[in-house]
Amino acid sequence: MTKPVVAVFGAYGHTAKFVTAELLERGFTPVLSGRDAAKLAEVGGGLETRVASADDPASLDRALAGAAAVINCAGPFGDTAPALVEAALRAGIHYFDVTGETLVAIDTFDTYRQDPRVKEAGVVIAPVMAFYGALGDLLATAALGEWASADEISVAVALDSWQPTRGTLLAGARRAGRRVVYADHRMSVRPGDEPQPTSTWTFPAPFGTQDVVGEFSTTDVVTIAQHIDTERISSYLNTTPLKDFVDPSPDGPEAVDASGRSAQVFLVEVVVRRGETTRRVFARGRDIYAFTAPIVVEATSRVLSGRALTSGAVTAGELFDAKDFLRSLPFDELSELS
User: Fold this and answer.
1) What number is the average pLDDT over the span 277-292?
2) Residues 6+ apart with CB under 8 A from 117
3) What predicted TM-score, i.e. pTM, was given to this entire model?
4) d(CA 110, CA 121)
């Protein structure tokens, strides 16, 4: 039996191509959508395509007709996310996106967590279901375990390189150096003219001790803060990949295998502290853009098959059994989840 139809908006983007391939691998029927008909035709490969634009609600309604869920891969997400969420609500279907834009993620949760239409529809609105946003949240939720709260949660990311996509570069420009910080049980946005703190972090192999920047403005801070009771969320990124933003390749990530993945190695470590006790978990894999695909498609599959723990505007850590979800992902290494 053919699995449900899933609309992919912004289907010709770098990450979207991995998402479409993952949907096909799992037996779903992707319908590809976006505003550029020529680009859709290039990536269509025999799949149905539907031209639609975020500023044309009727076109979005046509794009989502017959779909069970939509995965939004199109930036700038400040423009597309509100329009696609509203279209999903009109259609009564689930919404997922892969934004790494912290300010957009905050706006989406603030707007829809208390929106009665979402609960009445019984749908899931799941922004930032991606490498950034979902993975740190799942690791933190798994590490927290039976604890009801934590004093501090630290998320440290190590990349051996970045090779940012055009979308990542544009998102960084829109952020203009502003950083989302969570301290004293509240979230705030720091201006771009404040220097970032620096320190070191000792990661598991193969990275070891690395120079890091603190207050790394990642969507994991936003997602963790939605549902975990903690005084502080600290975030770090090793400095090695930052050089790729000084002179970025115009071609973005370089594919090294038939799937299109790059050779980039990532490692995400989360430390949860309560009093004098700490719990550490980490995950290592390849290509942060490609790895977004199994995260968002696994989430879509679980929601559509009735394996979600709740509905509404929620994070990965709220939606799923975090340990079970993490074990389903194709990491090169995942630390023991007790």
Assistant:
1) 98
2) 89
3) 0.97
4) 18
Q: Which helix (H) or strand (E) holds 43?
A: helix 37-44
User: CB under 8 Å to 58, separation ≥6 — which residues?
Assistant: none
- 168: phi then psi, degrees, rounded to nearest 5: -65, -40
* Residue 182, CA distances (Å) to 80, 204, 221 in order: 26, 25, 7
Distance CA 296, CA 90 (A): 22
pLDDT mean over 103-132: 97
Tens-place pLDDT, residues 139-163 = 999 999 999 999 999 999 999 999 9
Beta bridge partners of 6: 30, 69
Residue 173 near residue 300, CB atoms below 8 Å = no
Which positions ≥6 away from 142 have C-beta within 8 Å? 281, 322, 323, 326, 337
User: Checking DSSP bridges between strand 124-126 and strand 277-286, what pairing results, if any?
Assistant: unpaired
Could you tell me which of 318, 179, 304 has the C-alpha nearest to residue 236?
A: 179
Over residues 19-52, the pLDDT tens digits come to 999 999 999 999 999 999 999 999 999 999 999 9
CA atoms lying within 13 Å on the CB side of residue 108: 34
Of 131, 69, 63, 53, residue with least CA distance to 98: 131
Sign of the CA dihedral 174, 180, 186, 188? Answer: negative
Nearest CA-CA partner of 86 in 54, 110, 49: 54
Identify the CA nearest to 236 among candidates 271, 205, 264.
271
Reported in sequence order, the residue ranges of the chain that DSSP labels E, i.e. its strands, are 5-9, 29-34, 49-51, 69-72, 94-97, 124-126, 149-159, 179-183, 186-190, 198-202, 209-214, 229-238, 265-274, 277-286, 312-313, 333-334
> Cα(first)–Cα(last) distance of the chain, in Å?
37
* CA-wise closest residue to 268 among 314, 219, 231, 321: 219
Report the DSSP pairing between strands 186-190 and 179-183: antiparallel
Residue entry with tokens 């090169």: 332
Please, are residues 189 and 104 in contact by the beta-carbon 8 Å criterion?
no
